[in-house]
From TrEMBL:
Organism: Lynx pardinus (Iberian lynx)
Every Sulfotransferase domain range: 16-137
Reactions mediated catalytically: 4-ethylphenol + 3'-phosphoadenylyl sulfate = 4-ethylphenyl sulfate + adenosine 3',5'-bisphosphate + H(+)
InterPro entries: P-loop_NTPase, Sulfotransferase_dom
Name under which the protein is recorded: Sulfotransferase
A Pfam family reported for this protein in Swiss-Prot or TrEMBL: Sulfotransfer_1
Length: 148
């Protein structure tokens, strides 16, 4: 997901600072028209970065030249973002928020890496909770690179 989340090993509930991920996403979605919010999933960007940049441009009402779109796409690649301290918050989380966590703000940049961090039992538990909490939610989530 585009939102940063930490997997709680005890309950297998993804969280963001201050709340459960489910509540975080649903809360923003419920108010999307009040705050003019565009939802864009990391997986969408990973599959079609150029299309995602154009989607953001349309949302913002901005027309960019082909050269400018190309420049944004180059700058927004995972590797470039990971190496840019303005985008990579590894040090900021620790310095400003006192968050000491194992791992990094940017991990591998792949879709489906959760499979390397969750056991089959954790995955089943998460799926059950996800289906319950998000069953009528209109946004669709991509869990694997081969999904549409």
């Amino acid at each position: 997901m585009c939102s940063t989340y930490l997997l709680n090993d005890v309950s297998v509930l993804p969280t963001v600072v201050g709340s459960l991920w489910f509540d975080h996403i649903k809360g923003w979605y419920e108010h999307k028209s009040l705050f003019n919010i565009q939802f864009l999933m990391y997986e969408e960007m990973k599959k079609d970065l150029r299309g995602s940049v154009l989607k953001v441009c349309k949302f913002l009402g901005k027309e960019l030249s082909e050269e400018d779109v190309d420049a944004v796409v180059r700058q927004a690649t995972f590797e470039n973002m990971k190496n840019d301290p303005r985008a990579n918050y590894d040090n900021k989380l620790k310095t400003f928020f006192g968050i000491q966590k194992k791992g990094h703000f940017f991990r591998k940049g792949t879709i489906g890496d959760w499979k390397n961090h969750m056991t089959a039992e954790q995955n089943e538990k998460f799926d059950m909770i996800f289906q319950t909490k998000m069953k009528d939610f209109p946004l669709k989530f991509i869990w694997d690179m081969n999904e549409e």
